[in-house]
Amino acid sequence: MQIIRQLHGGACVVGFNSFSDDRGSFAVPYEATSAVELGLPERFVQDNHSISAKPGTIRGLHLQLRPFEQGKLVRVLRGAVHDVVVDLRPSSPDIGHYESVELHGGDNTALWIPAGFGHGFCTLEPDTEVFYKVDAPYAPQSELCVAWDDPNLAIDWPVESGSAILSDKDRRGLPFDQAMNVIAGGAT
């Protein structure tokens, strides 16, 4: 494993080797010793796998609040996504700043998203499969969804607002200012 692109706040794109022959290929996308050397967790507690049937499906912007924050190691198994991380750490000089990367199935990359970042992605191809490891268990009571299309964040998504395919939860995402109030311990 090696960092191939450093993003702000400790987020990064990680690359790993794949070996191919006439049978197919073999890769080791995660190895604990290498991960720790890169500043990633040694231990993950849950694997998540999503399949999105149509391009233009947006999942996010999600995070879990303290003390249940999650770091995520995200990888695309099939298809492609426009993946977005937003710094939502109240003490960060980059608060509200986002970065995006494209991840493709078979490109031998993963995206590390530290705790305290909002995360979301938009599928670019049909039947896109996203697999990610998290370093803390799912805690529904601490879940927060930030509006993916909040004008204060001004995220450049590859889909128009009226064409995006969203869950009800993602449609009800909080505006950035309200979400930051919740993160800081205030009310909605």
Structure description:
The chain has 3 helices and 13 strands, in the order ββββαβββββββββαα. With 188 residues, the chain is mostly beta strands. The protein has a 6-stranded antiparallel sheet, with no helix packed on it. A 5-stranded antiparallel sheet has the order 9-8-11-6-13, with no helix packed on it. A two-stranded antiparallel ribbon has the order 3-4. The N and C termini lie far apart (41 Å).
The total beta strand count reads: 13
Largest pleated sheet = 6 strands, antiparallel
- Tell me, what's the shape? globular
Average predicted local confidence, pLDDT:
95
Residues in β-strands, percent: 35-45%
In oligomeric terms, what are we looking at? Answer: single chain
What is the terminal separation in angstroms? 41 Å
Poorly predicted spans: none
Helix content: 10-25%
Derived structural class: mainly beta
Order of helices and strands: EEEEHEEEEEEEEEHH
Number of helices: 3
Radius of gyration, rounded? 16 Å
Strand order of the largest sheet: 1-2-10-7-12-5
